[in-house]
C-alpha cells in the first residue's frame, strides 16, 4: 500500500506490526529484502500497511492471518509506536508510522497461502529467535529497539 502524501512531499505509510512470542519466549521474525537497490536484507516482525478505512488493530489482525496463517480476534493494546524516515531508495513512501502489538501464541509453522506476489519474492525466510540469539546476532533486526523491548517483556 502506498501511503498518503502532503504538500511537502512526505509520503507516510501507516503500518501495524506484531511481536509474536511463543510458549518458549521465542519471537517470530521474517527475513526480508529491503526496498533498496543495495539488496540488503533485514529480520522484521510480521505486519504491514494499514489499508484505507482500516484501523491499526484491524490491520494487525489481517496481517497476522495473511503472513502467518494465525487467526486472532484482537491484537490487544498498542505496545509501542515508532515514527521513522525511510532510508531505502526504492521504497514507495518517505516516512513510516508503526504501531506494535504483542501477541502470545503457541508455537506454529508459518502458512503462506495468503502471501501477496511481492511477499513471495521479498520474504526470504522465517525463524523463531530466543532473546539470547537476538542479543548475540550481528544480523540487521527491525525495529532497532526490539531486543530492549523483549528484555522487559520477557523478564
TrEMBL record:
Keywords: Hydrolase, Magnesium
Protein biosynthesis among keywords: no
PROSITE patterns in the record: NUDIX (PS51462), NUDIX_BOX (PS00893)
Domain Nudix hydrolase: 11-152
Leader sequence segment: none
Top-level division of the source organism's lineage: Bacteria
Cofactors: Mg(2+)
InterPro entries noted in UniProt: Nudix_hydrolase, NUDIX_hydrolase-like_dom_sf, NUDIX_hydrolase_CS, NUDIX_hydrolase_dom
Record Pfam families: NUDIX
GO MF entries: hydrolase activity
PANTHER family tied to this protein: GDP-MANNOSE MANNOSYL HYDROLASE (PTHR43046)
The family this protein is said to belong to: Belongs to the Nudix hydrolase family.
Protein name in the entry: NUDIX hydrolase
Organism encoding this protein: Frondihabitans peucedani
Amino acid at each position: 500500500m502506498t501511503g498518503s502524501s502532503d504538500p511537502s512531499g512526505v509520503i507516510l505509510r501507516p503500518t501495524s506490526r506484531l511481536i509474536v512470542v511463543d510458549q518458549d519466549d521465542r519471537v517470530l521474525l521474517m527475513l526480508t529484502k529491503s526496498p533498496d537497490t543495495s539488496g540488503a536484507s533485514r529480520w522484521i516482525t510480521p505486519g504491514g500497511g494499514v489499508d484505507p478505512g482500516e484501523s491499526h488493530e484491524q490491520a494487525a489482525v489481517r496481517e497476522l492471518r495473511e503472513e502467518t496463517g494465525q487467526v486472532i480476534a484482537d491484537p490487544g493494546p498498542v505496545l509501542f509506536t515508532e515514527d521513522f524516515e525511510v532510508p531505502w531508495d526504492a521504497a514507495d513512501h518517505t516516512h513510516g508510522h508503526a504501531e506494535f502489538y504483542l501477541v502470545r501464541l503457541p508455537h506454529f509453522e508459518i502458512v503462506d497461502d495468503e502471501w501477496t506476489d511481492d511477499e513471495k519474492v521479498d520474504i526470504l525466510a522465517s525463524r523463531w529467535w530466543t532473546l539470547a540469539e537476538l542479543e548475540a546476532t550481528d544480523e540487521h533486526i527491525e525495529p532497532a529497539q526490539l531486543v530492549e523491548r523483549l528484555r522487559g517483556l520477557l523478564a
